[in-house]
Design goal:
Layout (H helix, E strand, L loop, with lengths): L3 E3 L3 H11 L5 H19 L5 E7 L4 E7 L4 E7 L3 H8 L6 E2 L1 E6 L6 E7 L7 E5 L2 E2 L3 H12 L4 E9 L1 H10 L4 E7 L2 E2 L5 E2 L5 H6 L3
Parallel strand pairs: 1-11, 4-5, 4-6, 4-8, 8-10, 9-10, 10-11
Antiparallel strand pairs: 2-3, 6-7, 12-13
Helix pairs in contact: 1-2, 2-3
Cofactor: Mg(2+)
EC number: 2.4.2.9
Enzyme class: transferase
Length: about 210
């Protein structure tokens, strides 16, 4: 798929293996989530425009390149997306942050929005963060909201994804590029990713 980028760098794959392990506790899980997100961000920001700026080195004046990270907006999907937020902000500390709260109804598997707060995003490069792209309905709903608020340049970043989730996002939002560390096998009967890593929110915050 033209809109899918699987970032299979050896460092990411190494960290992802530890992240999946049932023996990995919440402290290490949070650290690994941040580190993998940082590495994903490196690839997901290749398209960001730069501008020339003049600086002076210890030797002479020269012209360098800089990004305008004040024109970047990070949108974690609550609550699990918060685990990815610091990984992005560590590289783009001046980015704005918006929040979209969505949970998946366990009976209907449909998205339920319960909170949303976005800065002005009309001219922003927007990065929607969702650790697990399973059915894709929550991510699609968050992207819907971002677009209604005026967002146009949107990238979705995920730790792991299912083929079903990728297909769903591609059908609903073909203009959105997806960066993920892994395309897993499938969804099971309970709409969990296989082999997956369990529930990212529960493992981040030890709620189970």
């Amino acid at each position: 798929m033209d809109n899918l980028v699987i970032v299979n760098h050896p460092l990411i794959q190494h960290k992802l293996t530890i992240l999946r392990d049932i023996r990995t506790g919440p402290k290490e899980f949070r650290e690994l989530t941040r580190e993998i997100t940082l590495l994903l961000t490196y690839e997901a920001t290749r398209h960001i425009k730069t501008h020339d700026t003049e600086i002076e080195t210890p030797i002479c004046k020269t012209t360098g390149k800089m990004i305008e990270d004040k024109k970047v907006t990070v949108v974690p999907i609550l609550r699990a997306g918060l685990g990815m937020m610091e990984g992005v902000l560590s590289l783009m500390p001046n980015a704005s942050v918006g929040f979209v709260g969505i949970y998946r109804d366990p009976e209907t598997i449909q998205p339920v929005e319960y909170y949303a707060k976005l800065p002005k995003i009309t001219d922003s490069e927007i990065f929607v963060l969702d650790p697990m792209l399973a059915t894709g309905v929550s991510s699609a709903a968050a992207i819907d909201y971002v677009k209604r608020a005026g967002g146009k340049k949107i990238t979705l970043m995920c730790l792991i994804s299912s083929p079903e989730g990728i297909s769903f996002i591609s059908s609903k939002h073909p203009d959105v590029k997806i960066f993920t560390a892994s395309l897993d096998e499938r969804l099971n009967d309970h709409a969990y990713i296989v082999p997956g890593l369990g529930d990212a929110g529960d493992r981040l915050y030890r709620t189970k």
